[in-house]
């Protein structure tokens, strides 16, 4: 950052240099110019969608027409008073900007989904379901957060459907089941692990 006090003093005519009153005036004006420069630097650097935080990020949301609450609803959060943090809100603002400015091509749709899903998606079409884009995941483990993909907001052209097919693989469970017989009848009971959907 330039120091305007020094610049102003260097620009003085030789006869005014090292005069106490003029030096004090240059210091006062230089401080004001330094503050003004810092303000405009912050205005340029801290008000963009990538760098804004807090109230400045909400100002970006005013321009994009997406509040934190609306972004929370897009995120499929059921709590009525839930508000996203800055990073989550920023993602939805970028998504909304992208949605407002894209042409809904295949690459636009994949780019929008990649904001919320970091694994590859494979595109296909079928004659059985016309005007539908079929997006498939590879094999996913239970640790992959499939909910991110299924709740991600979609960009699509009017009249075009999007079908997302996810394949999850659960490791095989080995267990021993003791069975005992009785004279009159018998029963067996098995407790299976609970799988989270």
How would you sum up this structure, described in words?
With 197 residues, this protein is of the alpha+beta class. The chain has helices at residues 4-10, 20-45, 54-64, 68-74, 86-101, 106-114, 146-150, and strands at residues 121-126, 129-140, 161-168. The protein has a three-stranded mixed β-sheet with strand order 1-2-3, with no helix packed on it. Strand 2 (129-140), helix 7 (146-150) and strand 3 (161-168) form a beta-alpha-beta unit. Helix 1 crosses helix 2 (20-45) and helix 4 packs across helix 5 (86-101). The radius of gyration is 31 Å and the shape is elongated. The relative contact order is 0.08. The mean pLDDT is 82.
- Count of helical stretches: 7
- Overall average residue pLDDT: 82
Low-confidence stretches: none
- Biggest sheet features: 3 strands, mixed
Task: Give me the Rg, rounded.
Answer: 31 Å
* Percent helix: 40-55%
Categorize the overall geometry.
elongated
Major sheet: arrangement of strands: 1-2-3
Q: What oligomeric assembly is this protein in?
A: single chain
Write down how many β-strands occur, each being a DSSP E stretch of 2 or more residues. 3
* Percentage beta strand: 5-15%
Distance between the termini: 55 Å
Structural class determined from secondary elements: alpha+beta
How do the SSEs run, as a string of H and E? HHHHHHEEHE
């Amino acid at each position: 950052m330039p120091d305007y006090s020094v610049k102003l003093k260097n620009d003085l005519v030789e006869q005014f240099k090292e005069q106490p009153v003029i030096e004090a005036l240059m210091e006062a004006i230089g401080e004001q110019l330094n503050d003004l420069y810092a303000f405009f630097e912050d205005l340029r650097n801290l008000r963009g969608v990538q760098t804004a935080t807090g109230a400045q990020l909400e100002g970006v949301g005013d321009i994009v027409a997406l509040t934190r609450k609306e972004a929370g609803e897009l995120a499929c959060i059921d709590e009525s008073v839930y508000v996203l943090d800055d990073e989550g809100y920023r993602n939805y603002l970028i998504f909304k900007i992208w949605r407002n400015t894209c042409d809904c091509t295949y690459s636009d749709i994949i780019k929008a989904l990649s904001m919320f899903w970091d694994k590859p998606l494979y595109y296909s079409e079928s004659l059985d379901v016309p005007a539908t884009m079929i997006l498939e995941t590879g094999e996913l483990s239970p640790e992959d957060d499939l909910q991110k993909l299924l709740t991600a907001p979609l960009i699509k052209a009017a009249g075009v459907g999007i079908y997302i097919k996810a394949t999850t693989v659960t490791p095989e469970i080995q267990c021993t089941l003791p069975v005992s017989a009785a004279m009159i009848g018998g029963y067996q009971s098995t407790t299976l692990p609970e799988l989270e959907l």
